[in-house]
Amino acid sequence: MLEIETHKLSKTFGDLVAVRDLELRIPKGTLFGFLGPNGSGKSTTVKMLTGMLRPTSGEVFISGRSVVNSPLEVKKRIGVLPEELALFESLTIWEHLLMIGPVYELSRKETASRAEQLLVYLDLWQARHTYVEEASSGMRKKCSLALALLHNPEILFLDEPFEGIDPVSARKIKDLLLVMVGKGITVFLTSHILEVVERLVQSFAIIVGGEIVCSQTMEETLLSGDTLEDLFFKHVVRETAEELEWIG
Amino acid sequence: MDRLASIVRCQWRVYWRRFSRARDLTVGHQGITLIITVLILFKYLRLLGSANIQIARGDTTLVQSLLAGIFLAWLILPISIPRADVSFFRLRHLPLSVRDLFGIRIVSLFITPYSWMIVAGSLAICYPLAHAPRPWLALAAALLFILMSCSTGLAIAHLLTIASWRRMLFAVLVLLCATAVYVLSGKDGGGFWQWSQVLPTNLATRAAVGKNPTLATGALVMLNVLTITAAWWSFWQTLVNEPRARSRRRMDSILFRLPGTAGGLAVKDVRYFRRLLDPYFGLLAAVLGCLYLVSSSAPSAAVAWILIIIVFIPNAPLAFNSFGLDKRSGLDRYGLLPVSGATIMRGKNLAFVIIASVQVCPIIVLAGWRLGLSVGTFGLVEAASLAAAYLAWGNWMSITLPTKMQFFRFAPPGGSLPELIAGLMFASLPGVLTLYVFKLRADQAIWVNLLILLLCGILYSLAWIRAGRRFEQQREKVVQSIL
User: Fold this and answer.
1) Coil, helix or strand for A229?
2) I need a labelling partner for A135 at 20 to 30 A (CA). Which of A166, B378, B383, B403 fits?
3) Right CATH number for A2-237 from 3.40.50.2300, 3.40.50.1000, 3.40.50.300, 3.10.450.50?
């Protein structure tokens, strides 16, 4: 069964084509990596998949439901760690969780219980009464991740989850993702850290200039004798540091 | 100097880019706002002419009033406009001294056309003063007065960003208003008028026409030293008061127990709305109203109902611009939540009702206690009608004309002054009708007022549903408007 499915998904901003004719088919219980350089259209794709941005054309289906036609049904089933973290100023980490729980129809008791477990797991329990604007970037990211996990989503979208996270927490998040995938939860992950993605994901796609240039499973990659990094740089042009003659 | 100029240039660009990005200088009726401002300036110029004649005769009453107006304008200017589009706190990592940053702060104050008008209006006061018996001393005193007003405004704007000072300034404001009420009631036996001799407006005019002009000018110099030092010190405080990672339990976390899907969202908005300065004037009006109801020997029911109308007015930005304090990050979270736009609007409306209730309820209770249950009931119906009317207009305006607001600042009129004025008139109508109907037919007034409440309720329901739908469709547009 396909959990995430897109047909000719496109997004344009004026003259700029951010995403062009994207075709994705991700089965249930897959840990999927979505890679690409900065400005390639990764976050725009995540926003369209999660109903935050309306596609210019094409269709998105999450668990067989159209994101455009049934946004609330889809949003109840997904958890999202967005690029901008989507946190409110002047609320503490704990207050964020208390606020979000009832929105997902969790009882207050259940919300508090899950929130406590999540914050302890993510090493945020001691800092739970810290205002998000006063928290470090890693703490904010973990707070947003806790919000994404609180309602036990069927599908998890993570936009750069390991950026700014300490190694211990990163390891815990990786372990958690593997447990979740083992339980049949689908994880859609974007990251620039290729080594991490290589060790975690089962399949991946590389997007450059809004178009998918490569899509395969990790098994296929390993059989071809390439690493993910080799494959990535086959498709992404790299500038050399020697051109910056004035440095040093 | 180049370093400072480059930063100021950036601020200048950021300010004006808003208009170029909107691709339309008439966006939000800037033109109408300009016309209203020009009309005010025209009236001001005529007053200057009258002041010119009066001061030549030795009468300083009008000049003093104009100076008080100038002082207020300078007080409001730094509070109402953003501290800077480039945060000074974020500029600290650059190799700039506090003096450099303070210089940028002062220059950045004069980026907006509103500040130019205030400068022009302030300097225009020199015209009548130049015709005073001691023109040179009068001009020097006027310039000193303008400088003092500017530095006082700066100091207060800086201090408002610090929690303990905010509380203190609010207490001072309450005290000043209570003093004003006491003086105007004529109970102080003229004591205040002796003290008024040392008010800066009085000092400035004394330098022009009164006794001891040198002493008055010297006092103004001293006041300038004090206020400039205060502006400098308070600016330095804003830089050194680095946000600390606090880890303390907030008492109002208890509020997060509000039931329903919108409950948590409403509490978040209560916290946001509390950080706007405008509702504190509602609170101030409510405090003064309660004082009146408690202390007056024969309080009037009409005054109590008028007080309810007045208390709602400063709270208008909370209803009319309910997304103004949200940032992109927060609006993105709204987009991620599995809730309809109507639920989000309900949360915001609930927050407005909580804030307004805190201010209005004591007046209603005291009115019921001092004037009878029927007056209290009328007040309650009036307040409910007013809230529904404010929210009916506000829900439409919040989606159509959202404007960026900032914590611990006054809500800017934005580019929607005509809509704001029309909204205030529309939303205050149920209160005015309450008074009118009671005066006309007191026996049937309760039924008419209940009918008004019903109408306002229907209007509110329609506006709420429509605004919710439009928010779902236009969330990105709202985000762009408040960036």
Assistant:
1) helix
2) B403
3) 3.40.50.300
